[in-house]
Amino acid sequence: MVIRFLKMKQVLFFLLFTFLYSGASGQGGNGFPYGQVTYRELDMKVYEADTSAVALMLDEFGEGYFDNTDHYNLMFEYHAKIKILKKGGVSYGTFEIPLRKSERYAEKIVSIKASAFNIENGSIRETKLDPKNVFTENQSKYHDAKKFAIPNVKEGTVIEVRYTLQTPFFYKFRTWEFQSEIPKLHSEFWALIPGNYLYNISLRGFLKLDRNESELVSLCFMKADCSLSKYGMKNIPAFYEEEFMTAKSNFLSSIN
Prior knowledge:
The protein has 2 helices and 14 strands; from the N terminus they run ααββββββββββββββ. It has helices spanning 2-25, 39-43; strands spanning 55-66, 74-84, 94-100, 108-120, 123-128, 135-138, 143-149, 158-167, 176-177, 184-194, 203-204, 211-221, 224-236, 254-255. The chain has an 8-stranded mixed β-sheet. The radius of gyration is 21 Å and the shape is globular. 27% of the residues are buried.
C-alpha cells in the first residue's frame, strides 16, 4: 500500500510538472479570442483619427517561444483582426507569409485559420478559409511564401487570421512591426526567451511603447527559466513613406 501510494504521488507530480512545463511554452491562450466580431465593428464606416484609411487593424497579437519537443524549434504565433473601410482595403484580405529555407532546413506553417465576417440579413455571417486554397510558392533557393486569400472580403468586412509558424532558425526572432501602411488600434508582441539564450533587442521608430514589461517564467524550456517580455502599442498611426526616404524598415516603429 505504501509503495502504491508513493507511485501515485510520483505520477501526480509528473503530471503536474508536465502541465506547468508545457503550459509555459504552449501558448495559444494569450492575446484575444478568435471569432468574437461585434455589430459595432461591422457597422463602422470610417476611422475618425484617419479618415483616409482604407482599412484599420482592430487588434493584433504575436508571440515567439521555443517548442519543447525533440526539435526545439522556435514558434511564432500571429493573430490579427482587420476592418475593411474602403474598396481600396479589400487587398488586405490576401496574405503572403514569407518563409526562409536552407539546403537542410525550412520554415513551415503548422496551422492557419482565417475568416471573413459580414452582416447579411441582419445577422453576422462567417465565411471560413478553405485549407485547400492555401498554397506554397517557391520564390528562390532560400525563400518560399505561403499564400491565401480570404473569401467574401468586401467593403465593410471584418477579417480575422491566425497562424503558427515553425522555424529551425532559432538564432533570429522575426521582427515585430507595430506600424504598417494602415493604422492600428492595438498591437502587442510577447517573447519567451530561455535564460541561457541571448538576443540583442532594440526598438526602432519614433513611437513609444504603451506596454514594456518583463517577468520570470520558471522551467519554461529544458528545465531552464525564461524571460517573458511583453511589448505593446495603442492608437498607432499609419506609416506614410516620404520622398527621398531611405529603407522604410529604418523608420517603422518595431521590435527587432
